[in-house]
Every structure is written in structure tokens, then in C-alpha cells.
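Dirigent protein: C-alpha cells wanted.
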Amino acid sequence: MFKLSSPCIFIVVLIATLHVVLYEAAIDPAPAGEPALELFMHDILGGSNPTARPVTGLLGNIYSGQVPFARPVGFIPPNGVAIPNANGALPTVNGLNGIPLGTGLSGTNFAGQNPNGQIQTQLGPDGLGLGFGTITVIDDVLTNSPDLGSQQLGKAQGVYVASSADGTTQMMAFTAMFEGGEFGDALNFYGIYKIGSAMSRLSVTGGTGKFKNAIGFAELRGLIPSGQVGIDGAQTLLRITVHLKY
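Answer:
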């Protein structure tokens, strides 16, 4: 009768054990752990203390005043009513704050409708959405609660790009840099943010300091700003819940 030596028996048992572990992991993957941290990001366009600026595209030109008749012309409309262009075409700015419609992470809260009740998309000369391709540079404040006046945790610096022709998505690439970290603690984020959706997900692509070699994902949810701190710009408030794996 053929007998296995002790080393061979050990190897066979080890291989069988690995197969069982891999099988169980495949059919019952480990659930996501508790969030590593939660941040609140304040993206402010216009006003006296903006944290974001469109720098390219048609909306970037409107924002910087390079397009004639793009800004309010001396009268104050009802709150939230958009001011038409000089030729009576679809408006390009929000009547409340003068920010170009379609700009930013909230689209400046504009949803124009035609007589059939369908959402209108402002089109450029090439037939694509007016905001398509607009790059916005950000230096947004990160806090530990929704209130802009709450404890500041750091800054989110990077860009977002209007990446869909209808203006409903922004490709985001930014680094969250945390204050007080001894080794320059930071996290890198990349992905698509869907304007108006209940939740979007970004990838965590790495980090520095205590977040070195971190990977994972972040859940982004749009919130209504509390208004406890008055600002004269257009603010978009994002709740960022970060799940990490090392």
C-alpha cells in the first residue's frame, strides 16, 4: 500500500484548506466595514469668498464676464428666476446670484422646462450642452458637520469637469488634505458625480501620511446647506462618507 510522507501530507492538507477558504470568500465576501471618516465639502461659486472657479468652456467665459449680456442688467427678479439673454433666448445666468446656469456641482439649481414639460438643455453652437467640457478648479473647505462654520478638517483641492453633453455629470479628481497631520495626511479621489442623484461613488486611489496605500471608495450625497453662516455665493454641500481598505 502506497503511503505519503509527512511533508506530503502537510502540503495536501494545506492546499485543501486554501481551496475551502477561497470558496467561502467567493460565496460570502466580507461586508464593508464601518466608514473610516465622514466629511462635508462646501463648494462655493461666486460671491465675495468663492472656493470654485470655472476656467474653461463657454460657461467659464460667461463666469468671467467675457460674454456680452451674460449678467443681470440692473433689475432684481424674484428669487431663483433666471434672467433671459438680451435676444430673449434661454437664460444663461441664475437671477438670484448671477452665476451661469449649468455651472458647478448643483447646476446652479436650474431646471428649465419647455411647454411639453420636458427638461431643457442649453445648447452651444455645436449642438452640445452649454456646460459640456467646462473645467472648474476647486479649493473647497472640508468640515466635520454640515455647517460651514463648524470645525474645519482641511481642504479639497483639484478639479471637476462637466463630462456629459446634457450637463448631468461631473468627473471629479481632487485631494483631501487634512490639517494637523504630522505626516501630511491626504486622500485622493477620482470618479463621476451625478448631479441631482441620491448618491454617487468615487474611488479612493491612494493617500499619504496615515492614509498611505489606502484604497476604497467614497459615497457622495448632496445636502441642503444649513444657512447658519450667510454667504453671497452659490453653495453646493456634499456629504462624503469614506470606506477604506489597506
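The chain has a mean pLDDT of 74. The two ends are 49 Å apart (CA to CA).

Cheers.
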